[in-house]
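anyone seen this seq b4? input:
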Amino acid sequence: MEKNKKKNAFLEILKFYRQIKIPWGWFVISILVSTALKKIEVLVVPWTSKVMTGMITEDNFLIGFLGITLLYSMTEEISELVTDFTGQKISRNVRTTVWNKIIHLPMSFFKKEDQQGLVSRIMNDTQGATGAISCITLLWSTIYAIYLSFVQMYAIYKNLTFVMLSFFPLSVFTAWIMGKLEYHIVNIDLSSLSRITGFFAERLPNINHIRLNNMQDEEYQKGIEENEKRYRAEVKKEKLFIFQAPIGTLAQYINQIILLVVATSMVRLGTMKMYHVVSLYNYSLVFMGNAYLLMATWQIIRHTESSCETLTEICNAPSEDLHSGVVVETVENISFENVGFRYEENTPVLENASFTIPKGKVTCLVGENGCGKSTAIKLIERFLIPQKGRIVLGKEDLSNVSLYDLREQIAYLSQSDQLIHGTILDNLKYGLHRDVTEEELRKACTVAQLDDLLNTEEGWNRQVSRFDNKVSGGEMQRIAIARAYLRNPNYLIMDEATAGIDAVNEKAVLSGLYELMKNKTVIMVTHDMNLIEKADHIVVFHEHTVETSGTVQEVQKKSALFRNFVKGETRSDVAAEV
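predicted toks r here
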């Protein structure tokens, strides 16, 4: 089973690399320069042997020694630059491929992976994922160096050279052990780094929320716990690393010791000259050094395997098919027919839910928390897929409708932050795949009552973001309303769009919403009675299904839950004036 798993893992890595744009030109240059470096490395040996045996008085020795040393140094520097540059280009291309895949994955995928942890995966895992490609250069150049050094050693003393080859099985065994250690070291490091990155990526944007609730001490302790987990992972990694280096050099040291013992005894017997011993030793350093590098390629491959585990899962997951499907050119009713959905196997969220959202009307979804209202919205947006039943747009199954066309017809407003880092203008035009005139922009801002935000020195070019404390929740909401107005959607979805808005901003937000809702098919989840009373159609959710639907008056007669809901809600005086 383990063997098949590893075989499949390597196949998945190869499949992953086929999706990456490889800079083959730079790759070939890297191989050529590395090969030249190994050739020069072998050519240096006779000169170092002369230095070690005192043969530096020969004619032109100094010029030759300086020339070959400088040539080696220059080639080594060029090789490192080319290899590093090639690796960085591959790493960039890996990040590009992974980001392209992530941005097109269905939302259901992200239940399996912590979204904040993906920051670490994109930055750190992609860096390690380039290793197997760079191994090709290393593999070729080291094999070439091993061949050249072996030829030279064989010419000096062939029997002793074959003795050295007998230690290759030990080298292979140590390489296998080092590979297993490398896999575990990298897996421990990347997993712990992903967790702690995810923790801080989630906490830091919510620092105001933490302070407002006086949760500094509690969050500090959670941070200490995450930091401790990272520390324990680092310690575990270092414990494994302690054994890695000695194991890796074991074969090399044993080989050198036997070589020196045998060679020095042969010098005493007069069957070998000291110069040949020194040359043989220096060639053996090149031979065993490159054999060690050859073992290191296995380590790099295992490193890459660990780095690629999450990336291959991301890149092999099916992307959303945006463009195939039916284009529905007219506004139609949306009907749920016995729809069922569960996030967890034994916990239903929707069960046999049937209702209709009439076109051109304002439909309000109401019910207790956790009864499936927001899930119904996600199903309409096709962030989720019904596990039972179906959703119909007009006469067409929603799953057959072009996803791109469907989302082009939808504008979504929620209580959460809806800004990207950029200017107000960037945010207003975000998601608009057409040119927008200044007149349209000003009209949208007037509808959303954004004039006060624009009447500053920077105007449209004011920088805003969800982390900008100078932008209030009401202002963020009004920017979102203006953007939705520019989008001019056929379907407007609002999920608690007024929740969290202060009384000062509520009037402006509601005014903008009422203007935006005109002549639209509106689907909203809300507890705001001002919005509920504007609804043409009410759908009451209860115990994970639909209890009843109809006008406000009809559902009040049919549903005790709705009557209790109305009694429990209050209308703000400011909002009531709108």
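The chain has a mean pLDDT of 80. Residues 144 and 544 are 68 Å apart (CA to CA). kinda curious what u guys think
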